[in-house]
Amino acid sequence: MKFSVLHILPRRQRKTKEEMGAVGHDPVAATVLSPVMEGSAKTVHGRFRHKLKMPQILGFVPRPRSPKPIVESNPPQTEVVMDFMENLKENRLVEACQQLLLREDQLFGQETMTVEGLVQVCNEDDKDTLQKDYETLLLHLWMAVHTTFSSTPSGEHLEILRSAVETITLLEEKDQQWEGRPEGSSEAPVWRPHQCRHTHDNLLEKMVDSQMRNATVEEDNISVSSVDNLSTSMKREVCRMGKRLKEDVLRVARDIRDCYPPDFDVCNLYVRLYHQKFSARLTELARSGLDVDDCNYLLCWVNNYYPNDILKHKDLEGHINMESLGTLLSEKDLTTLEEQYLLQKESRVRTWFSKALSKEEEGWLSGKSPELIDGYCFCPLAIDIIQAVDGAMREARTILGSEAKAQRILCQLDSFLISYKKSLEEFVKARRENTQAVVKANLVNIEQFRDFIVRREESIPEEIRTSCMSTLADLRDCGYGYFTGPIHEELRVQYHRLWTQAWFTGGQMVLDEVLGTLDRHMQQFTDLKPICVEELLGRLHMEMMVEYVKRMMKRKMRLKDKEQQETAAKLLAEDSSKLSTYFTEAGSKICWLSEVLPKMAEVVRLQDPGSIQLEIVTLARDFPDLSWRHISALLSLKANLSIADVRSIKESLVENRPTVTTCNTIPPFFSKVPAGRTWNMCRPACICYGRRGYSSQD
């Protein structure tokens, strides 16, 4: 092997025969001096001069001592220059590559090539030797890259890899120099171009393929606590491949990445290769006809573990392009698996709901009363159903990786509520001994279901939410109506005395009797949960107010003058105060109902048509569902109001209503009140409210 003159190590100077003969053949001396001969001669002589005692030898005449040489205290260190093979042995791949590049330049005279076509004659033996040396260098180069994942990364290993990558860059630059040489230049060497970058990428692809194949046949290293969850060979294979992928790409991001220049984009390169291998194997498995459990596990990896636990790992952040990878499965394969999962999940949820309701019905029909918890009737049905829905939704979101796809599970809740409503209504109609306690317990269920839907309003599709809330409204009517119906039935006789001559004269305390009867009925709800008592009181409050206003608008009274109207307004305000006080103290939260009667009382009290007109507009602003039929019935109480005044009030209301109803948020009230016939404004002005003042038209 021939080397450049600049890179041949200097030979060490040999001793003369006389110097060697002066020592003689004494074995002791030879033994002492032989290891020291590896160092500097001066150092050896100076180190042992006073320690060695020469034996007496016949005929030996000591030579006179030469003057002691002057030794510098800090002699300059001689740089040791390694040849090509020594650099390879020390894994100094960059230095070895630079030596070959220099020899290539010298051998082919690339620096002196010109467009005139001057050609330098190359020695064929030198070319063959250089080609073999390149082959040896490339062998060491690919060995360094190939051992990327073979051992725990260390500083030495990473330095060798960094040297190999730098060498690839040097060889690539030389390839480009040869490709860009002027026309008419000598032909490039047979080993050019090396295409090391292309070979490097192909090698990485084979390494990744080997890593993933080896992962599928490794022994199961999963902890004992997870064995039950990985009960099939498919699950274990996917888990091993996924774990290997994660470990390797994180190793690249943490250690290997620093060995490569940015233009290699090594993190994206490795992730793309692993993604392709993982995707290919998962596609094969997805098309093999998986059972339910294997299907669920595969979807977990595709939609959750891989994108969230691996690609979004903090160590990969900023180093990979997730969008360029795509999904592990094609849209067709993924849709097939997701549909398989949803069908079986819906079936399981539906079956579980049916069993839970059947078990509850058996308890109702057995005649047993619900258990009491904290003194209140309790039924666990709603809690069990809600937990089941939450669990199914949470699992579906994890497996499908999508809130929208998981919402399909909620359709089963809608179906369940319809079945639940049918069962409860049939049971209530039977009027069994335990009906009252069962209804109390189920009112708690209904409120819990409603609260669940309201809290999830934004995440539940509008169609499903509307259907569920409608069913729950019917259930509430069924449950609360079971209690309010008998109460109103008993109060019906007392309602009839409202707004009569007896009520007006104060001879009978009609409203006090009504509230006394109501209070007696409320004593039976001590075992009803407070949230349900509040709703029950709110319904009673609303229904009694509706009944009161309905009796007021029956037109059985005519207030002929100011005195009667002021008296009626005073009684109206007092009744409003009594109702509001009772229900507020009992626990009703419908505070706005306390504003209804005072505003109507003000209309009854006022005498000036302009003031009445303004009050009517205000009333219509506060209660948008107030119709002209209701206003006509209210005005009919005032016998001294002319038809012209009524016409003016109506015109003013028509003109101002579009602007007074835009921002109102009070729930409907007057729409619940049936109104009688309206005042016929075509009658002569002298006709008062009463027997001849009604028309059958609105």
UniProtKB/TrEMBL annotation:
GO terms for cellular component: exocyst. It holds the Pfam family Sec6. GO terms for biological process: exocyst localization; exocytosis. GO terms for molecular function: SNARE binding. Belongs to the SEC6 family. This is Tumor necrosis factor, alpha-induced protein 2a. It comes from Oncorhynchus mykiss (Rainbow trout).
